[in-house]
Specification:
By secondary structure, the chain is mainly alpha-helical. The protein is built from 2 helices and no strands. The protein has a domain of 31 residues.
Length: 145
């Protein structure tokens, strides 16, 4: 008699077997008698804890670095007590300059003094007056009485 087991059932059976084996390994590792005879991969446990080994190196004093830059030669400043080229003669004006006259009746604002200009009249505010409505009130009622 053969049982035909599907692929899904085989996978479920395999996962359950692996989970069971994992649980067995964990319980065996936690058992106290299993740890007595086994050696640790880190070596035997120390009986006393000793202080950390420290190094105290002697100070070393080195001489100061000396820098010898390459000499730099700059050109000297040339000073001529007399000019090498004669400056051109200043041009003489052909006509003397005369101020232009403007025949405009309006003076420019920078020539008008502030206290000489008259102040403009204050602007008038337009006020709209509505007649009261009490003149016609009650006249309609008086007709029916």
């Amino acid at each position: 008699m053969s049982l035909d087991v599907s692929g899904q059932a085989r996978a479920d059976l395999l996962v359950a077997a692996l989970d069971l084996e994992l649980v067995r390994l964990l319980r065996a590792a936690m058992r106290p008698d299993a740890q007595v005879g086994r050696a640790s991969p880190l070596g035997p446990a120390p009986s006393t804890i000793q202080p950390r080994h420290r190094l105290h190196p002697a100070p070393r004093f080195e001489p100061r670095a000396v820098v010898h830059p390459a000499p730099r030669f700059e050109p000297r400043q040339v000073i001529h007590p007399q000019p090498l080229v004669a400056p051109p003669a200043p041009a003489q004006p052909t006509e003397p300059q005369q101020p232009r006259r403007a025949d405009c009746p309006i003076q420019p604002p920078w020539r008008v003094l502030a206290w000489e200009t008259p102040l403009p009249p204050p602007p008038k505010i337009k006020l709209i007056v509505y007649r009261p409505d009490t003149i016609s009130k009650g006249s309609l009622i008086d007709l029916f009485i």
